Amino acid sequence: MLAAGLVLMPAIASAAPGLANVNANVRSGPGTGYRIVDTLKKGEYVIVKDCGANWCLISHIGNDGYVSRALIHNPYYGSKGYYQFAPKHPQPGRDSNR
C-alpha cells in the first residue's frame, strides 16, 4: 500500500489550481502558432500541471493543452498568479560523485 502512495505523490505534488482571467484559447503547444484545441471561459477552473516563462500546461475537462501564463492565475495567490514547480530533472549536489 505504501509503495502505491509513493508512486502517486509526484503527480499530485506537481499540479496546482488555475482560474481563467479572461476567455482564453487552449493550444496544442506553447505558442500562438499551435492549433486551438479547447477554450476557457473567464472564471473557469483548470488544473495547472507545469509552467514555463510564458505558457502553462493545463488540464481542462480531461484534456491537456497550453494557455498563456498571463491569462490564468492561482486563486490562492491573487490575480498576479504564482506557479512554482519542482525541476523535471533535479541536479545532483556537487558532492554526489564522492
Structural features, described:
The chain is mainly beta and 98 residues long. It has a domain at 12-73: SH3 Domains (SH3 type barrels, Roll), CATH 2.30.30. It has one helix and seven strands, in the order αβββββββ. The model is unreliable at 1-13 (pLDDT under 50).
Keyword list:
SH3 type barrels; mainly beta; five-stranded antiparallel beta sheet; globular; 1 helix; disordered N terminus; two-stranded antiparallel ribbon; 98 residues
Topology of this structure?
Layout: H1 2-13, E1 16-20, E2 24-27, E3 36-40, E4 45-51, E5 55-60, E6 63-68, E7 72-73
Antiparallel strand pairs: 1-4, 1-7, 2-3, 4-5, 5-6
Relative strand content:
35-45%
Arithmetic mean pLDDT: 77
Report the radius of gyration as a whole number of Å. 16 Å
User: Main sheet, how many strands, which sense, barrel?
Assistant: 5 strands, antiparallel
**Structural class from helices and strands?**
mainly beta
Number of helices: 1
Give the % helix.
10-25%
Shape designation? globular
Low-confidence region ranges: 1-13
| Name of the CATH architecture of the domain at 12-73 | Roll
Question: First CA to last CA: what distance?
Answer: 34 Å
One letter per element, helices H and strands E, the order comes to HEEEEEEE
Strand order of the largest sheet: 6-5-4-1-7
CATH class of the domain at 12-73: Mainly Beta
CATH fold-level label of the domain at 12-73: SH3 type barrels
Number of strands: 7
CATH superfamily of the domain at 12-73: SH3 Domains
